[in-house]
Amino acid sequence: MNVSVIGGGAIGLLYAARLAMSGNRVQVWTRTEDQALALQAKGIVLLERHVSAVVHVEARTALTAESLGAKTMDSDLILLTVKQPHINEDLMMLLQHIAKPGTMVLCLQNGIGHMDKLRSRLPQLSFAAAVTTEGALREDSCTVNHTGHGELWIEKMGETHIPSGMAENLAIKQKMFVQHLESAGIKAFLSNEMNNRIYQKLLINSVINPLTALYGVKNGELPSDPLRRSLMFAVYKESSLILAAAGLAGDTDHWERVLAVCASTADNESSMLRDVRAGRRTEIDWINGGISALASEHEMAAPLNDSVTALINALST
Ligand code: KPL
């Protein structure tokens, strides 16, 4: 299978390495030329339980005229692993360039809003939302540390969102892609209830990401202080009420899940804390900003989500 991985972050490198190791042809598209050159020369160094493997992949810099002009392989599957701020016109151009009719694009972003944007901008492609619980840390431009085994949940394509006349074909293809991912050691599942999974992840991110970034603490340190924990609970309460109105199922103790993620990723800095520290644009507009937008749709107020969005934006712009 020909797989393009767009984005050279931790999850992109992890999945690219796994898929290449199991015999697929893999092209990684990176934002910087330095990373593409390093990957091309050195390959991906995958660290797993103190064992390291070097995996050779093809690497290209997205959006240099040379890359786009060059003959690229036709992709059967595209893993879109870039962060929300990079879902922009440059990315649309790249997708148009490397996708062929029938290519499936798995979208692994935090937050909400991007699926509608991608589908309305490129209606000829098949986009499936995906959520991963894999733990991975990028140590340098070529090295990824697989810190915790997780699962990849992929939206099962129904009649909606599929270019006309392709439904049956795509359902068969999706099953085949899942088998390929499984043979690469990626635990992948098709899901009919992706909205619920996306909202569960959004709820967790809406609490942990902005508060770790504002307090400047690691995930595990957030609930250990009583004041921080009360604020966590207040944001959690507001987000969960809004997401419940939008369709989040109430069959799970979501607060316990938030605490469990803080514990299982205790030594990690959240992606938002890392973005703020590096002076990069964060995903706040698609996480807490996304929840505020859902609140407006349901005629609800979202003062805490509005506030953390404004504070993080003040820090990072
Ligand atoms: O998804 C995450 C992120 O940092 O974006 C969590 C779950 C908070 C883990 O760090």
TrEMBL record:
This enzyme's EC code(s): 1.1.1.169
Protein name according to UniProt: 2-dehydropantoate 2-reductase
The keyword Oxidoreductase is annotated on this UniProt entry: yes
Domain Ketopantoate reductase C-terminal: 194-315
PANTHER family from the UniProt entry: 2-DEHYDROPANTOATE 2-REDUCTASE, 2-DEHYDROPANTOATE 2-REDUCTASE-RELATED
Family: Belongs to the ketopantoate reductase family.
Entry GO CC: cytoplasm
Cross-referenced InterPro entries: 6-PGluconate_DH-like_C_sf (IPR008927), 6PGD_dom2 (IPR013328), ApbA (IPR003710), Ketopantoate_reductase (IPR050838), KPA_reductase (IPR013752), KPR_N (IPR013332), NAD(P)-bd_dom_sf (IPR036291)
Keywords, in A-Z order: NADP, Oxidoreductase, Pantothenate biosynthesis
GO terms for biological process, alphabetical: pantothenate biosynthetic process
GO molecular function: 2-dehydropantoate 2-reductase activity; NADP binding
Protein role: Catalyzes the NADPH-dependent reduction of ketopantoate into pantoic acid.
Pfam family of the protein (one): ApbA_C
Pathway: Cofactor biosynthesis; (R)-pantothenate biosynthesis; (R)-pantoate from 3-methyl-2-oxobutanoate: step 2/2
Domain Ketopantoate reductase N-terminal stretches: 4-157
Catalytic activity: (R)-pantoate + NADP(+) = 2-dehydropantoate + NADPH + H(+)
Primary enzyme class: oxidoreductase
